[in-house]
Design a protein that fits this description.
There is one protein chain. This protein is mostly helical. It has one domain (2-113, 125-230, 239-275). Helix content is 73%, strand content 2%. The chain is built from 14 helices and 2 strands. It has a two-stranded antiparallel ribbon. A hairpin with a 2-residue loop joins strand 1 and strand 2 (21-23). The protein starts with a helix and ends in a 14-residue tail after the last helix. The relative contact order is 0.10.
Length: 298
């Protein structure tokens, strides 16, 4: 969904500037559509007697709010002048909003998010299902993520995206989709309950460590990476090109560390929960030749 928002933002080409904030009617419309579709899914599930937890709903609305902050706030305008602003925008819509939206879409919401006339044709496409099955394999997802991340930060690619709106749209789209691919096998939105498997810690840490080297490069570089598009625009904000670049690298590095720590703690906690649940279940199963044990009430 965040990917669709990104395309709508750049491809529309109609932007209103009001009170220092960039308000793209296309992005606003897509965000509102996403909100309406989610509310519709909740309503359908409620009529069927299914209630979605406050935590899951909160994840969806938080992700949508972060996407809106990246695309509709003054940050969108700031990204045209500062590399650090552009980096903050990418971090909001790809690294933060995307996983939160996946959590909010967890089954059964995922099944009812799109109307049946749209969902059924997609579900019947075997080629699409096979491609997604391959892409969400952890080694493949990390490889795609690294290729997209580093490829777009090559000078010719990054400056080309800044000079051409459609290329910029594709850049944002790529970042969001690459982030979704990395988080898919870890968050498993097609399952009603997230499994606490410890390999997911290594998966997330591997992806974030790969990105950390790029953030460190921005910090230690002694020449501006994208002087061709940003030049001295940072001076209007009290920043030299190198200061701006180091802030961008610091933002990227800091978020990578935070995500790794959160993933480490969360998946260890979830794994401990699953272990306790399995032990409790095994104790309730009577051993052959022994009297049945009374069920444990929780």
């Amino acid at each position: 969904m965040a990917a669709t928002i990104t395309i709508g933002t750049r491809a529309a080409g109609v932007t209103m500037r009001a009170m220092g904030a960039s308000v793209d009617p296309a992005a606003l419309a897509v965000i509102l559509l996403a909100a309406v579709l989610y509310l519709r899914a909740l309503s359908v599930l409620r009529r069927r007697g299914r209630r979605i937890s406050v935590l899951q709903q909160g994840a969806w609305w938080s992700g949508l709010a972060l996407a809106a902050a990246g695309l509709l706030s003054p940050l969108d305008r700031l990204a045209e002048d500062l590399l650090s602003g552009h980096m903050a925008q990418h971090l909001l819509i790809a690294d933060l909003a995307a996983p939160l939206l996946l959590v909010g879409l967890r089954t059964p919401v995922l099944v009812f998010m799109l109307p049946r006339p749209l969902l059924e044709p997609l579900a019947r496409r075997r080629g699409l299902r096979r491609a997604l099955s391959v892409l969400r394999r952890p080694p493949v997802a990390i490889a795609v993520y690294v290729a997209v991340l580093y490829g777009w930060h090559l000078r010719f690619a990054f400056e080309g995206a800044m000079r051409h709106e459609l290329v910029h749209a594709f850049q944002h789209e790529s970042f969001v989709l690459a982030s979704v691919l990395v988080w898919l096998p870890a968050l498993e939105p097609w399952r009603a309950r997230l499994r606490g498997e410890l390999w997911k810690i290594g998966h997330i840490l591997g992806a974030r460590l790969a990105g950390m080297f790029l953030g460190m490069a921005f910090i230690v570089m002694r020449t501006p990476a994208y002087a061709g598009v940003y030049g001295d625009r940072g001076a209007a904000h009290g920043l030299s090109p190198l200061d701006d670049q180091q802030i961008a690298g610091g933002l990227m590095l800091s978020l990578d560390v935070i995500v790794m720590l959160v993933a480490l703690c969360f998946f260890f906690w979830r794994a401990a929960q699953d272990h306790d649940r399995a032990e409790a279940s095994s104790q309730r199963v009577p051993v052959a030749g022994s009297p049945a044990q009374p069920a444990v009430r929780r």
